[in-house]
Design goal:
The complex is a heterodimer of chains A (406) and B (238). With 406 residues, chain A is α+β, with helices and mostly antiparallel strands. Helix content of chain A is 57%, strand content 18%. Chain B has a single domain, classed as Rossmann fold. In chain B, β7, α6 and β8 form a beta-alpha-beta unit. Classes of the chains: A alpha+beta (406), B alpha/beta (238).
Chain lengths: 406, 238
């Protein structure tokens, strides 16, 4: 029998029992919806991380006191071993690594910012050299970024993140106004464009001041992050090796000893993130897998009921010439179609849910384009796996008995 | 139309069928020898429990004999597998059942098309042949009706159309009027007469004498054996 005929019969049969079919499919619907929605959230997070958080730019990497540390022991080791990075390290890299086209550095501190009666507690204050702003350009809402001459004379100027500007200057233009850090007044020269928030954390809650000023205000003991832009992005790895050699020489590391500093790349951050989300995803997959197995068993059960209900029909079909293969095909197509209908509803629900999540929650959910074909594949597998037993039971019915049944 | 003109449609030799019922064995058929020629109209009679239904199931290739042999259209069937038997049921046999056995959710046309689906006939040809078969039983105007929208007689005519549509070697009717009133029964039997005149080979299983009277030969089965096998002067339809 042609598969089209089987499909037509399956549609008729599913439609004739639509409420029962729908209830049967709840397990599959929920399972597929949950897994696709999870995938949408993770897909959205991955996309966000790679585009916004780990986007260091082409050929850019960062030298930090600590690299990516994923457990406590590594952190304790690194804290004991790794020395602070200082501007002298950055200058050495700039001098001795010719393929490092731009070298800039940044240091962080947390303190309160004030303007008149407005005050923001615990704001991230970054001290940056102008090279950092060259390597990692900021989009401007107004004004300008920091200049080399301001760095040279530790000028009291500041460049604000969007939220900071909004909160300190709710009703006025911040450019040229004064912001206070402790007893020092700084003139606002620019405001960055809004970056938005990630998982509910604002990405616009910062202020940037010249590195030299930062040292004056917060002392010169804090470890710096060194941003390096390779002259040739395609050969960034070679530049990284050269930087590593310079740093190891400066720290007198012996060949067998591990690095006592960290090198951070976009790939490194993305890999870390992917590892994390993949773990989440596999746990989710396992939980949802159980729901799909239950869904499959329900489908099997309802197909067995269907075989019993349609015993006479099966007898008629056999009497007029259906062989076992025809009957198996008919019931298998029905269970696969049933399961796929559930999958389609699940995907549709997940699509709606990911849209809702994206607009109403901080989760950057994004519907993954591979979800529908994957769901289709999974549902086909469920339909076949759980449909084969009822289908074979139908096919093996004795036609005489079947025709006699009520 | 049946274009085949002569030769044997059915030959059985020592056809035997036993069923294991718990520890005992029931011998439903104890060696049936039967030959039916093309174009014959045969009635098989016998009381219930005589084995006539078992014989019909064997002749219809719904069942296989315990012993003995059965040739349909010259082909030995006792050793055939499931697929071949399904194929024979599809191509060589047209069943007409007492309870019609139509698919309740399908229209008359779809019901008649059913055997052609399993014969891998293309949709267009299927439709044309099914309409032609419905025309033969005078139901072309009801082809979009479902069985529950048709009278008993009409349902049986749909089932006869379904039996005819593959142009089988044998029409096999099991108590075809058992669920019909006497007037409708006469109409159905008249239809069988017409089909017989058109050249179809017909085997009717019945326990009603006036149904068997339409046949040109009456075979009586008793206790799993042929008790009598006689030509019979047909009562022609009006």
């Amino acid at each position: 029998m042609r598969i089209v005929e089987s499909a037509r019969l399956a549609v008729e049969s599913i439609w004739a029992n639509r409420l029962r079919s729908f209830l049967t499919l709840l397990g599959v619907i929920i399972g597929i919806a949950a897994i696709v929605a999870t995938a949408a959230v993770i897909h959205g997070l991955n996309r966000y991380v790679s585009e916004k958080l780990s986007n260091l730019g082409k050929g850019v990497f960062v030298v930090q006191r600590f690299g990516i540390v994923t457990n406590r022991q590594d952190f304790l080791d690194a804290a004991r071993r790794n020395r602070r990075l200082l501007p002298a390290d950055a200058r050495a890299i700039a001098e001795r690594v010719p393929s490092a086209e731009v070298v800039g550095w940044e240091v962080h501190a947390t303190t309160d910012l004030k303007h008149g009666d407005h005050e923001i507690l615990d704001t991230d204050i970054g001290g940056v050299t102008p090279q950092v702003l060259e390597i990692e350009p900021y989009e401007l809402a107004e004004g300008r970024v920091l200049m080399q001459h301001e760095e040279d004379r530790a000028a009291p100027v500041v460049f604000l993140g969007h939220d900071v500007a909004d909160r300190l200057f709710p009703n006025s233009d911040p450019i040229g106004k004064e912001v206070r850090i402790g007893g020092t007044g700084l003139r606002v020269v620019g405001v960055a464009a809004k970056k938005g928030s990630f998982l509910g954390f604002s990405q616009d809650n910062y202020a940037k001041i010249p590195f030299s000023l930062h040292r004056k205000l917060f002392g010169s003991t804090r470890s710096i992050n060194i941003s390096v832009k390779a002259a040739d992005a395609a050969r960034m790895w070679e530049t990284m090796d050269e930087v590593r050699a310079v740093m190891r020489a400066r720290h007198h590391r012996r060949p067998a000893e591990p690095d006592d500093f960290g090198l951070l790349t976009s790939e490194g951050i993305n890999d870390l993130w992917r590892n994390l989300t993949q773990t989440i995803f596999s746990v989710a997959l396992f939980v949802v897998g159980i729901s799909l197995v239950v869904g499959g068993i329900v489908i099997m059960n309802i197909m067995l009921v269907s075989v019993v209900e349609r015993t006479r029909e099966i007898g008629v079909r056999k009497a007029v010439g259906a062989n076992q293969g025809d009957i198996v095909q008919q019931f298998l197509v029905e269970s696969v179609l049933l399961s796929c209908v559930g999958g389609a509803i699940g995907v549709a629900i997940a699509y709606g849910a990911s849209q809702l999540l994206a607009t109403h929650t901080p989760l950057p959910a994004e519907f993954p384009p591979w979800a529908p074909p994957t769901a289709f594949g999974i549902c086909t597998a469920i339909g076949i796996f759980f449909g084969i037993h009822p289908a074979r039971r139908a096919a093996r019915l004795d036609p005489i008995e079947a025709l006699r049944s009520e | 139309m049946n274009t085949r003109t002569d030769g044997e449609v059915i030959r059985t030799r020592g056809l035997t069928r036993s069923f294991a019922m718990g520890s005992t064995t029931v011998h439903a058929l104890r060696g049936i020898d039967l030959v039916i020629q093309r174009g014959e109209y045969v009635a098989i009679m016998g009381p219930s429990g005589s084995g006539k239904s078992t014989l019909m199931n064997l002749i219809g290739c719904l069942d296989t004999p315990t012993a003995g042999e059965y040739w349909l259209e010259g082909q030995a069937t006792a050793q055939l597998g499931e697929r071949e038997l399904a194929r024979i049921r599809n191509r060589e046999i047209g069943f007409v059942f007492q309870t019609f056995n139509l698919l309740p959710r399908a229209s008359a046309l779809r019901n008649v098309e059913l055997p052609l689906i399993y014969a891998q006939v293309s949709p267009a040809e299927r439709r044309a042949r099914a309409i032609e078969a419905l025309r033969q039983v005078d139901l072309a105007d009801r082809m979009d009706h479902r069985p529950n929208e048709l009278s008993g007689g009409q349902r049986q005519r749909v089932s006869i159309a379904r039996a005819l549509v593959t142009n089988p070697a044998l029409l096999l009717a099991d108590e075809p009027t058992g669920n019909l009133d006497s007037k409708t029964s006469q109409e159905i039997m008249a239809l069988f007469d017409v089909l017989h005149r058109a050249g179809h080979t017909i085997l009717v299983v019945t326990h009603e004498r006036d149904i068997a009277d339409h046949a040109g030969r009456i075979v009586t089965i008793r206790d799993g054996m042929v008790a009598s096998d006689e030509p019979h002067a047909r009562t022609a339809a009006p």
